[in-house]
Amino acid sequence: MPARRAPSKKPSLKACSDCGTLNPRDAQVCSNCGSSRLTEDWEGMVVIISPSNSRVGAHVGLLKPIKRAIRIAGRIVV
Length: 78
Fold this sequence. Notes:
By secondary structure, this protein is mainly beta. The chain is built from 1 helix and 6 strands; from the N terminus they run ββββαββ. 6% of the residues lie in helices and 32% in strands. The longest helix has 5 residues.
């Protein structure tokens, strides 16, 4: 019998469907782009603390630290 995986505990955040930024669960609009299209249907997280020293941050043009979802509603956004 295969080993059972422990259920993952997803942080209490909502992802912006437009830019992928993770916001507090009680947010009504995205802190990054202002969109109201927020969802709890997201998977994975990438955190960029120092965009100027990050290849990923440079690749997506980040200017400030950010938390982003990797996948939203089955669609890869990072």
